[in-house]
Amino acid sequence: MPENEAGAAPRQPHISITRWREAAQYVYPRLRRERRERREDYHAHAAALLGQLGEALGNLPPPQEDVRIPVDGLKRGVLVEVETMVPSERAKATKIPALDFPAQEIVVLRSERSEDRTERAVVFVPDDARAFLTGRIAAYGSEDLGNHERPDIDKFEVIEAIRAGAARTLVVGTPDLASPAPQWWELWLRRPDAIVEAVVAAAQQAGLDVYPDRLQFPETSVIFVLGTAEATLGLVGRLNGAISEVRRASQSIEPFLDQGDKSLGQHALVAEYCGRVTPPPADAPVVCVIDTGVAAAHPLIAPALAGAWTVNDAWGTDDHAGAGGHGTGMASLVLHGDLLGPMSDQRQVVLGHAVESVKFLPPGGFPATEPARYGIITQAAVAVAEIERANIPRSFCIATSSPDLSSEAPSSWSGAVDQICAGSMPGEQQAGLAAKDHPKRLVLIATGNMDGGLKAVVEQHHALEDPAQSWNALTIGGYTAKADQAQDEPELIPLVAPNERSPFSRGSQTLPADLTPIKPDVLFEAGNMMMDNAQFCGWHPAVSLLSAGRDVATEPLVPFWATSAATGVAGNFIGRLKADLPGRWPETYRALTVHSAEWPGPIRKLLIGTGRSWKTGSKGTKQQILRSMGFGVPNLVRAAASARNDVTLLAEAEIQPYAASADGRSAVFNEVHFYALP
Length: 678
Fold this sequence. Notes:
By secondary structure, the chain is an alpha/beta fold. The protein is built from 15 helices and 31 strands.
């Protein structure tokens, strides 16, 4: 039901069912399934693997010729690369089995999927574990099993090949390893901290610059080194087992689009609208915009600006972005949404939420943010807001992205965002609290943008930009209802029809469906593109949103577009939802946002096809559509309240769905929750 539908039935509060929760131990079903054999001759397969393993391990070097760097707490060893067999036509992939043997310190450092749906992994094998691994494979291929089941069949049956590993096998993506120029690299290190400090010392001794800050995750630390690919990989090759991944650090960030210089607003219009606006109360929930700063004196923002700060005092807090600004426009959208609607009528506007600004990008005249700091500085921005105004119901809005890193795997930046959401930033982990008791946060992230170009290129699928692949953040894509003609350029036509996916929006169609979540999660208004007679497409004020500009004196209103705009509108949605439903968990607001979403008619038709039910079309086709469209456009009325024929049940409780198995090598189901409703 549309948010403002005339004559709509009155809405009712959602029903909380938390008090009826009963926790119980998960019981595995007793259904026994017959295994399908994958090999005709296990003995021959084991013999082949043993031969490959022997070649991969090679001979141990004499002590005087061993160039491997000793690391306290880490055995010396070698890397081997393992590849799985090609899957059947119906299978999604043949996944790497659990090849970790903790007692022997055999560890899978990284794995990745290939285009043929096989998977490859890099495994660290300590020198003193060679005989153990050889014995396990030999036992798996034994011909004299008696009445016993074949051991380790789940580990070795799907392995097709074993070969020697090297530093290059740890590299993620396809960076230019032949370049002689020094570059920033991310080294993903195994913890504990002793290993991290040893790698830092080794890098410095090898003549590599090491950035002082680092990112810390529960089982991994990320350090940043500056050096040539040859020098960096040379170091990595002497630290077998300490480093799990090597990534090229991003060099540039593109948070902004050219805003143009055409003014759309007038001071009288701003003054008239501001006269109808009631500021939010002092204890109102806030949406914190982490961006380029804000024009704090702007009349559209000042009455509802709860704070403006910066991660570097030398930068100031003012919006430094060119053209119409960026942080100011974001703050305006968070407070008012698209101003075109409210400025076109005479309604009174009562704001139920406020906005904050944290500047985390440097203005001109200052060094650009180092690649190493994208994740670190984002966490610093969050910390600044929470220190300046503690214990405030707050959400975060980030509409910046980088195209330089592959979105196919977590990056240091997306990992940092995941930590922010989970309440597990460095320092929070040392608070002596269980993970479930850490404060959680709701973070909105833009998918990144397609800038424009020829129609055939724009209409192709374009992958997410970093850090939109974050699992824990709410990733915002764009749709558009704007299809007006340009008054001064009648030859231009809107690229997409109303209620279609915005041509600016990116998606996750190229990511493996069984390894990554559907992104974007939801869609908000992002504006349209205009196309000329040569089928060249780009932004245009006629199909953009209206927002506040940083230059209050000459251009207080400016056009705003793309997924930055969509993320700002999403911030407005979350702020209003929290004002309507105070005191809920961040996870609840996220769930209600997605739960309330509906696909506009044209997108819904894509999912249903020519039929009348969801059974029309293949599951794979629907998956591809979802990874471009998300779960639809959220509806504030549905999110905030239930209807007589549309009930939402809310339960807020902690659950530990998985636990470590008895041998500590895998995860097993742990707990289920039942709700005995009256």
